[in-house]
Design brief:
Length: 432
């Protein structure tokens, strides 16, 4: 199938709060065009087009130019040559002249009647690049009976972070495999010892697994700190400030309460764990905020219970008509209900995360998420795991394609006008 091509269009217009000479100098350095042609572009305001770009390239280059203060727009190849930029107003797309359009009009959106500025995440990784990394990680993990897993995780995170872009900048992960191995060594030794002992004496193996469960919150806390402290965006590190007591409450006490309640307290456990994680996360001097209410998760899971009850009622009718169809019906319902809960929960949790005046927004859909998961599982099984790198890239592309960073344009414009150079290194979200 032929891929859609895009054009990047520049007319020499400068955003408010930026110096024309600085923007011209930046564009001259980035475009490598002759100085006289750049001068003519900013003087005459004639359209300069860069053609035959794929969507990721076009959006990344547009974000880079916008960050440097230049007004630019994107157009699919094949659209009308004289099509004007559009903004959303009262739910209707209306054409506006390039001069009347706001500097970031291509990423303005209307959300509940309020204009917001949306920055999309871009993932530029490819299966061709990641396949050698993924295959080596898989084979060495199998050969070493799991001992290579920390190194495999670090190599994977380095690649995924480097290929994740926001506002023209990529994330970076600087963790070292040896550091992660030191963190994982004690849990790995306990797990391998428990499995080995259980082969000869089941009760002793269960006791060792219980001891491992007691160590899990401590291990989880160290892992969260390792991931955060080695994650960077624009040379600014993330940080996790959660304490040990909170880790044991979130990752030990609440799972035990869920078991004792036969699963009824599961929504509250999810809420407590997410609040602990995002409540302890920081980017530079900015703490993350988690504004989700536990009642939202309770309503979601009660709705799922209602769906399950309805599916069971229908299954009883199917038994009387065609008993052989009962198990396929139950399996189908469980898959659909599980997909519904996973998507709605993921959207609600991440969309409740904010930092400074920015917030994250996730828009998974049940149909697309279910197709992604089922196709990845099927391909991984039929290939005996050899296509797991392909599945990993697809999952990363999907997550970032449906995740964005949202802020108020008035606040962003004022911050840039005050200090455009400092604003570039001031804020960024965490990569999910």
């Amino acid at each position: 199938m032929k891929k859609t091509k895009w054009e990047l269009i520049v007319r020499g217009e400068v955003q408010d709060g930026f110096s024309v000479n600085e923007v011209k100098s930046s564009f001259l350095r980035l475009s490598r065009l002759p100085p006289e042609r750049v001068d003519a572009l900013f003087r005459e305001r004639k359209a300069l087009r860069k053609r035959n770009l794929d969507e990721n390239q076009a959006r990344l280059q547009a974000e880079i130019l916008r960050r440097k203060g230049l007004v630019c727009s994107l157009r699919r190849v094949g659209d009308a040559e004289n099509a004007a930029p559009t903004v959303v107003k009262s739910g209707i797309r209306q054409p506006v002249s390039p001069r009347a359009a706001a500097p970031h009009s291509k990423i303005f959106s209307s959300v509940q009647g309020r204009r917001q500025l949306r920055f999309s995440f871009l993932f530029l990784g490819t299966t061709r690049e990641f396949f050698p990394i993924g295959i080596v990680n898989l084979l060495l993990t199998i050969v070493t009976a799991g001992l290579y897993l920390p190194c495999a995780r670090v190599r994977t995170l380095r690649y995924l972070y480097t290929k994740t872009h926001l506002d023209g900048n990529s994330f970076s992960f600087l963790g070292q495999p040896l550091e992660l191995l030191k963190i994982c060594l004690i849990p790995m030794v306990f797990l391998m010892s428990a499995l080995l002992v259980a082969w000869f004496h089941l009760l002793s193996g269960v006791l060792l697994l219980g001891l491992l469960a007691l160590l899990f919150p401590w291990f989880k806390l160290r892992l969260l700190r390792f991931d955060a402290e080695n994650s960077f965006f624009r040379d600014i590190p993330f940080e996790f400030t959660g304490d040990v007591r909170g880790a044991y409450v979130a990752y030990l006490l609440w799972p035990v309460l869920v078991l004792l309640s036969a699963g009824l307290l599961y929504p509250q456990m999810v809420y407590q764990q997410k609040r602990y994680f995002f409540g302890g996360l920081r980017f530079g001097k900015f703490p993350f905020r988690f504004a989700l209410k536990a009642a939202i998760l309770w309503r979601l899971h009660l709705l799922a219970i209602g769906f399950i009850a309805a599916a069971v009622s229908i299954a009883q009718l199917i038994v009387m008509v065609a008993p052989k169809l009962v198990f396929p019906w139950i399996g189908l319902c469980m898959v659909l209900i599980g997909a519904f809960v996973s998507v709605r929960q993921s959207n609600a949790v991440l969309s409740a995360v904010s930092v400074a005046q920015y917030r994250l927004q996730r828009r998974f859909t049940v149909a697309s998420w279910l197709w992604l998961q089922l196709s990845n599982i099927a391909v991984a099984l039929f290939s005996l795991g050899l296509l797991l790198p392909w599945a990993c890239i697809r999952a990363a592309q999907y997550r970032l394609r449906h995740t964005s960073l949202v802020g108020k344009p008035e606040q962003l414009a004022s911050r840039r006008s005050r200090c455009p150079a400092t604003c570039e290194k001031e804020l960024a979200p965490v990569a999910d």
